[in-house]
């Protein structure tokens, strides 16, 4: 079973991309008692990961420096958003208070807790990506069970490629869309072996190009596996709650539109926190059907409360 002891990476502890990636996500508030084992590029290089070509690496580094340059951050005031929800700060404080127990399924079964912390870094990163692929349309408990069965056999790119489809299906069942996921996991694993030396790519663009990997998974993989906050990871919980609270300027009809709407106004330093915070809130209080508004600290501030 996935457990807090298994974890060494932590999405809430990640920091924004800056010039240096010298600190790990394990330092975050949800990482209490966890071994710090950040999966940084330096670590990848040290273990002989296939490096991108020098020119490609230089391009990527420059791009990151331009986007998140520390001096620029220091000298230029942050751009004020043209719009922000009226009560969002108090609503956020209330959700943090309601989530202070950290006792939702995502808090002990989420992606930060489903990889083998004793495995080599690139294996851990692969396990992070795999658990994210399994997690779509699937409860955390079911994803955790599938990961446990896969890990019991040694979960690496090679071991998956050597496993026949029927056996892989048996191992991951009953995750949602398990037949399609068998296909995607095999295809993605083959690509990772051929192009990335068994590691996972370190950009959202390359991650979403993998079969079965969507934007939410890519942003979470960047955060948990690489320690880089690349965007807000919006799943069905974040999408639903953002709309109920009026955190999008107009109603949105897809997680991707919600992500874009949130990134318009939410301060970047909060991007890494939002997913875990709202997923747990959605699992315990702001349920998809029959949300527990009576016990919610936001009931007087929530535009949706009266209509539910
Ligand atoms: S008041 Fe109800 S709908 Fe609004 S955030 Fe709370 S639980 Fe969700």
Ions, cofactors and other ligands present here are: iron/sulfur cluster
| CA gyration radius, whole angstroms | 19 Å
Tally the helices: what do you get?
15
Major beta sheet summary: 2 strands, parallel
Strand order of the largest sheet: 1-2
Overall mean pLDDT: 82
Number of strands: 2
Q: What percent of residues are in strands?
A: under 5%
Overall, the morphology is globular
* Order of SSEs: EHHHHHHHHHHHHEHHH
Please write the CATH class name of one domain. Answer: Mainly Alpha
CATH architecture of one domain: Orthogonal Bundle
Query: How far from one another are the termini?
Result: 36 Å
Structural class: mainly alpha
The CATH topology of one domain corresponds to Endonuclease III, domain 1
The amount of helix comes to 40-55%
Protein name: Endonuclease III-like protein 1
Catalytic activity: 2'-deoxyribonucleotide-(2'-deoxyribose 5'-phosphate)-2'-deoxyribonucleotide-DNA = a 3'-end 2'-deoxyribonucleotide-(2,3-dehydro-2,3-deoxyribose 5'-phosphate)-DNA + a 5'-end 5'-phospho-2'-deoxyribonucleoside-DNA + H(+)
GO molecular function: 4 iron, 4 sulfur cluster binding; class I DNA-(apurinic or apyrimidinic site) endonuclease activity; damaged DNA binding; double-stranded DNA binding; metal ion binding; oxidized pyrimidine nucleobase lesion DNA N-glycosylase activity
InterPro entries: DNA_glycosylase (IPR011257), Endonuclease-III-like_CS2 (IPR004036), HhH-GPD_domain (IPR003265), HhH_base_excis_C (IPR023170), HhH_motif (IPR000445), NTH1 (IPR030841)
